[in-house]
Specification:
about 140 residues, mainly alpha, two-stranded antiparallel sheet, rod-shaped
């Protein structure tokens, strides 16, 4: 609660300045509170930069998966829709997480870790027949 205490102290100083009650202002305490506020703002600025980098990485992961899906399926409409959603400024983090899960689910269906269809079938006389295999299509 150090931040809340700092906010309350600064509000108190501000109210004294607004009401022009100079005799009630503790200038030494105000100076300490302002120094603490500067340190807190510097710390918050560093966190903001880190958050922006993480958010950018999060969005680029979604975009990369969406692009891979659209290339595998030969359909760019999904990728365009995802890009529009990612460029929207009013997206909450929970909505981005939901979008990532939907894209990841589609990605895992398009690029499964286990084979979903036999690519090579054996013929009755010992030979092999190679069937067509398309990424993203269940056979």
């Amino acid at each position: 609660m150090q931040t809340q205490n700092l906010i309350d102290a600064l509000k108190g100083h501000l109210s004294c300045l607004d009401s022009e009650k100079i005799e009630k202002i503790d200038f030494d305490q105000m100076q300490e509170d302002l120094k603490t506020a500067v340190e807190a703002l510097n710390h918050l600025q560093k966190k903001d930069q880190l958050c922006n980098k993480l958010l950018s990485d999060f969005k680029s992961e979604i975009k990369r998966m969406s692009l891979a899906i659209s290339r595998a399926k030969g359909d760019g409409s999904t990728c365009n829709l995802v890009e529009k959603l990612l460029s929207s400024e009013n997206q909450s983090f929970d909505e981005l997480v939901l979008l990532r899960e939907k894209v990841r689910e589609d990605f895992n269906q398009s690029f499964p870790t286990k084979p979903q269809a036999k690519v090579v079938d054996t013929l009755g006389y010992g030979g092999f027949k190679i069937n067509e295999f398309k990424a993203g299509v269940k056979q």
